[in-house]
Design a protein that fits this description.
- It is a single chain.
- With about 150 residues, this protein is mainly alpha-helical.
- About 60% of the residues lie in helices and about 5% in strands.
- The chain has six helices and two strands.
- A two-stranded antiparallel sheet has the order 1-2.
- It is globular and about 40 Å long.
């Protein structure tokens, strides 16, 4: 997914290198549309399977008490919330059972981290599929680069 991110050892900090890469002129790969479709099914399916798990219920109660509103869908209820709240709720739901995708190159699962935020922002902004694929490709590349630098998952 996307070109490998060049590692730099100059005076730029990791955060600025990652930000420059993420904001770069990367284009989505057409062949990744089908892959993203499978990733979406996998991630949302994992979240829906955890709809009544304790952490998901606790966060749903918190969100209801906060009264957040917005255009982003909360997968387990169908309600809408702000992009930030929907991403938090959907990401938590997706992680609870930990059946989400596994990267072929290492034992990581970036989709449940990336997809909830991407879909929430895409809904809020009306982003098209091509932009969503591009954002996922960049997010997955950054996720892998950071994971490569960590001693453990």
């Amino acid at each position: 997914m996307g070109a490998p991110m060049p590692l730099r050892t100059d005076t730029d900090g990791l955060t600025s290198v990652l930000a420059a890469f993420a904001a770069g002129d990367e284009t989505a790969r057409d062949e990744h549309e089908d892959l993203l479709g499978r990733i979406l099914v996998d991630t949302v399916g994992s979240a829906l399977a955890s709809a009544h798990e304790p952490a998901e219920r606790i966060l749903q109660n918190w969100a209801a008490a906060e009264g957040t509103s917005g255009r982003a869908t909360v997968w387990t209820t169908g309600r809408t919330a702000s992009a930030a709240t929907a991403a938090l709720l959907n990401g938590t739901a997706g992680h609870q059972l930990d059946y989400d995708d596994i990267s072929p190159s290492m034992p990581i699962h970036p989709s449940t981290v990336i997809v909830p935020a991407l879909l929430a922002v895409a809904e809020q902004r009306g982003a098209d599929t091509r932009r969503l694929v591009q954002a996922y490709d960049v997010g997955a590349a950054v996720f892998r680069a950071v994971a490569d630098l960590l001693p453990q998952h």
